[in-house]
Amino acid sequence: MVGIAMPPPSVKPLVNYAKLGPNDLCWCGSGKKYKKCHQPRDLLTALSGAEAKAAPANPRPVRPGKVSPRRVVPDRIPKPDYALRSDGRPGSRIKDVIKNAGQIARMRTACQAARQVLELVKAAVRPGVTTDALDALAHQAYIDLGGFPSTLGYCGYPKSICTSVNEIICHGIPDDRPLEDGDIVNIDVTIYLDGMHGDCSETVAVGSIDADSQRLIEVTRRCLMAGIGAVRAGGMVRDIGQAICGVAEPLGYGVVRAFVGHGIGEQFHMDPQVPHYFDQGSTFAIKPGQTFTIEPMINQGTWKHRSWDDGWTAVTADLRRSAQHEHTILVTESGVEILTLKPGEPQPFM
Ligand code: MF3
Ligand code: CO
Ligand code: CO
Q1: What is the pLDDT of residues 297-310, one digit of tens each?
Q2: Cα separation of 7 and 63, whole Å?
Q3: pLDDT grade, residue 265 (50/70/90)?
Q4: Strand duo 184-193 + 148-149: pairing
Q5: Residue 113: what are its φ and ψ, rounded to 5°?
Q6: pTM (2 decimals)?
Q7: Reduced to 3 states, what is the DSSP secondary structure of residue 32?
């Protein structure tokens, strides 16, 4: 997503709510009894005993850093509707999801530009570089391409990319934390260009990483490809999550449920929602001309998440690592065109 498939549990990290009784005051400060406030939601995403036991302690959890002032986009760059509103809310969701030839051509342009920015940022990843420096680099690159950083101001999001380090699942906000040797970081790039959004992301290594992190990244790439390979005109969106779970779960990885892939085009997030887990109810019919993202978030441990107080950053509930890869795709009569491949990379499903 990164649409939210279920209401995000606004559980503060590191609160030991297991100690709260139903009639105690809720931890959130509402003054209500716990049972009348956050307890139902906390119970939904509480770690099972087995999950808690399996999780090794994370001695160096990522902490929020300092976020730099908002970067400016020149007036000549065309902006999406939400960028002109103070609350950053997009207009109502467009229902017609089938794109015509002209729209598809503009999607190709936006998606290739997103890829270009992602490659530029990836090349700058190394120990000592702050995620804010990566944001600055991306911000200028979008503008140089004539595009707008889709995330900037979107529902209040403050930066031009998302940078999700180690146990951060998604929506990490670039800040002054320098990347460290052994970290993994997902860079999520979205550009608004030619009236269309193009969205892609990758998790990459910072310096040299341990074998388990390497494997997590590789399995996540396999999950993305399995999900894309399950797309066919005449099929349903649920086929995608089924294929992803089929790769991840037998290997013991958790598939994140709270954040999903999404239709994309003139709007950043539109129908359909694309769960990466198996959701029997996701019967949305896949048809040629649809464009949507697939962006599985795969965890070393539990699929459950917690949210930081910044309202954006999602971390694994057991603080083990999470990786993500994202493509924007076009459904064709005979298969799938991946719109965010690197230039010259062969299309695997055409
Ligand atoms: N690029 C993210 C996605 O894949 C969107 C993040 S929305 C933000 O859908 F506001 F958090 F940036
Ligand atoms: Co996306
Ligand atoms: Co994205």
Answers
A1: 999 999 999 999 99
A2: 24
A3: very high
A4: antiparallel
A5: -70, -40
A6: 0.91
A7: coil
Which ligand 1 atom minimizes the distance to the CA of 295? 4
CATH superfamily entry for domain 78-85+94-338: Creatinase/methionine aminopeptidase superfamily (3.90.230.10)
For the record, the structure tokens of 116 come out as 């270009």
| CB-based burial label for 151 (10 Å; 0-12, 13-18, 19+) | buried
Q: Which residues have CB atoms below 5 A from the ion given as ligand 2?
A: 199, 293
Contact (Cβ atoms closer than 8 angstroms) between residue 11 and residue 22 = no
Give residue 237's pLDDT: 98
Answer for the pair 39, 22: CB distance below 8 angstroms, yes or no: yes
Q: Hey, where are the domains in the chain?
A: 78-85+94-338
Q: What is the DSSP letter of 264?
A: -
Integer Cα distance of 256 and 261 in angstroms: 11
What is the Cα–Cα distance from 114 to 120, expressed in whole angstroms?
Answer: 10
* Amino acid at residue number 254: G
Distance (Å) from CA 348 to ligand 1 centroid: 26
